[in-house]
Design a protein that fits this description.
Elements lengths: L7 H6 L14 H6 L15 H4 L5 H4 L1 E4 L3 E5 L9 E5 L11 H22 L3 E5 L16 E6 L6 H6 L8 H11 L4
Antiparallel strand pairs: 1-2, 2-3, 3-5, 4-5
Length: 186
């Protein structure tokens, strides 16, 4: 008789037995938790992903739209499906460092992001904002970025409350294409 070792959850539920959603796998979050693609310092040459994304194709960089001074990109670690960020091309950390033209285009792109998300996904509302500094919750504090998070009535179900995770029903590449196809002209 062959004896194999089983993990504690497998012993509790049996191999292949339903586990009543005791385990939810979100392996993509581990990259964020471990700090993958986070800058090593405050400078533009210190591994800033927001500085390197524009050099990629729109598809590879998940860029929805490009302007003269800012671009819209999908968040790799979204709070909701369609979670966009509006990012200046110039590497600045603080909102007060933007010049007037950058401020105006960032605002215009935020409005376009809202229109595109309403058109493509029927968003009912939005959370819009930016975290200034790591103590305020900025994951990448060295490069300013504004979040545009679409919301729908009832989108806070048991998953984020009980499971502390979101279930996203669409691949980021598909979401990027859907939004890029309806992006209004700035």
């Amino acid at each position: 008789m062959l004896h194999t070792m089983t993990s504690e959850p497998e012993q509790q539920f049996g191999v292949g037995a339903p586990d009543a959603f005791q385990r939810l796998w979100t392996p993509h979050r581990m990259a964020y938790i471990q700090g993958e693609n986070k800058p090593t310092g405050p400078g533009a040459d210190d591994g800033c992903p927001f500085c390197s994304i524009p050099a990629k194709s729109d598809e590879d960089g998940l860029i929805v739209a490009r302007g003269e001074l800012v671009y819209a990109v999908l968040n790799l670690y979204p709070y909701n499906g369609g979670h966009l960020m509006v990012v200046p091309f110039r590497h600045v950390a603080d909102y007060t460092e933007l010049d007037e033209a950058e401020t105006a285009e960032l605002a215009a792109f935020t409005k376009c992001a809202m229109r595109a998300l309403r058109t493509a996904s029927g968003a009912h509302g939005f959370n819009i904002g930016m975290n200034q500094g790591s103590t305020a919750g900025a994951g990448i504090a060295a490069h300013l970025h504004q979040h545009v998070v679409p919301r729908w009535g009832g989108d806070t179900n048991f998953m984020p409350v009980v499971g502390h995770t979101k279930v996203l029903p669409q691949l980021l590449a598909d979401t990027r294409k859907m939004l890029a196809d309806v992006w209004p002209t700035v």
